[in-house]
Amino acid sequence: ISKHLLAATEAAASLDALEVVRVEALGKQGRVTQLLKTLGGMSPEERLANGPAIHALREAVTAAIAARKAHLEQVALDAQLASEALDMTLPVDAVAPGTIHPVSQVMDEMAEIFADLGFAVATGPEIEDDWHNFSALNIPETHPARAMQDTFYLEPKAKAAGDGQGPSSDGGGFAADADRAKPEPPMVLRTHTSPVQIRTMLAQKPPIRIIAPGRVYRSDWDATHTPMFHQIEGLVIDKGITLGHLKWTLETFLKAFFERDDIVLRLRPSYFPFTEPSAEVDVGWTMVDGRKRLGGSEGWMELLGSGMVHPRVIAACGLDPAEWQGFAFGVGVDRLAMLKYGMDDLRPFFEADVRWLKHHGFSA
Ligand code: PHE
C-alpha cells in the first residue's frame, strides 16, 4: 500500500489529480483511514504489532502529499508569472508630454511677482451682468464709453415674473423696485477684468490688495487683437493711497517681469469712466541693433490703463469715498507676452498649432 500510494502521489501531475490521491488514501473511505479503523477491532497484542506501521504509513503519505502539493503550487505560480510577464523590450509609442501654454505661463509669472508685493488673486465670472461690467463702473447705459468696448451680448433671458434671479438679487442692486418692469439688459461676455473690482469690493472689507487674471472678450480680430484675450486687473483700496503708489507698484512689477532694472515708466493723462484721474502707462524703449528693446527712454510704447478708483465706483460698492481711496490698473497679458518673447502677431497664441508652439520653444 505504501509503495502504491507514494508512487501515485509522485505521479499526480496537477493539484486536482493530487486531491484524488489524497481522498483515496486519507479520505473517510480512504485506504489508510480504513487501515486505522481496523486497529479498533484488534487484540492488544495485534495492535502493538501493527499499530506503529499503520501510523507510520499515515504520516509518510500525509507528508508526501504535502510536499507534492507545495511543488505543484510552485509550478503553477511559475507558469502564471511566465505567462503574465511584460516584454520590456517591446517598443512603445512615443507620447509627447504636454506643456503649459505661454500665456498661462506668463499669467503665473505675473501672479507670482504680485504675490511678493502682497496681492491676493481674485476671480469673477466670464459671463457677466450689465451692472458689474458697466453700470457699477460708472458706465451708464447711455454713456458713449460703452462703444469703446465692442461687446458680445448674450441672448436676453426670458424673464419669469418675480423669479428673484439676475443681477438685481446678487448683491449688485441693479434694479430698484421702480424699474422692475423694465426688461433686464442682456448678459455679456465680460469686456474687461474690471468687474472683478466691483465683486471684490462688495465681498471684502478694505484694505484690499488683489489682482484678477482672466479671459476677456471683445469683437475684434487683427494681428494684435483677438476676440478672446487675457487681462490682469489690479486693485488697491486703503487709506491715503496716491498715484505714487500706483507708479511704484507698476515699476516694481515691470522690472521684475522683464528682468531689467532700467525700465522707465511714463504716466499720460487718459480717460476711463471708472478712474479719476486716469492714466495710460507707457514704457520706455531704446534702439539696439535696429530693434526696439525695453529699457531707457528713447521712445515710448503704450502698455496699460490705470488710474485712481472713481469715487462713484467706491460708493457703488457701499464704501465711503471720503474714507477709502485706491488705484486700479488693467494690463493685457498677451501683449506683455508678445513683448517678452519678441512676437509681432498675437493670433498664433490661440491657434493651438503645436508646430508653432514647438518652434518658439513653448512645447516639448
Ligand atoms: N478696464 C480697462 C480696459 O480694459 C483697463 C483699466 C483697468 C483702466 C483699471 C483703468 C483701471 O481697457
From TrEMBL:
Gene3D superfamilies: Bira Bifunctional Protein, Domain 2. It is an enzyme of class 6 (ligase). CDD domains: PheRS_alpha_core. Mg(2+) binds at E276. Binds 2 magnesium ions per tetramer. Residues 163-174 have a biased composition (Gly residues). Transmembrane segments: none annotated. Residues 104-348 form the Aminoacyl-transfer RNA synthetases class-II family profile domain. It is found in: Cytoplasm. Residues 158-188 are annotated as: Disordered. One of its GO terms (molecular function) is phenylalanine-tRNA ligase activity. Its cofactor is Mg(2+). Its main location: cytoplasm. It catalyses: tRNA(Phe) + L-phenylalanine + ATP = L-phenylalanyl-tRNA(Phe) + AMP + diphosphate + H(+). PROSITE patterns: AA_TRNA_LIGASE_II. Tetramer of two alpha and two beta subunits. HAMAP family: Phe_tRNA_synth_alpha1 (MF_00281). This is Phenylalanine--tRNA ligase alpha subunit. It comes from Sphingomonas corticis.
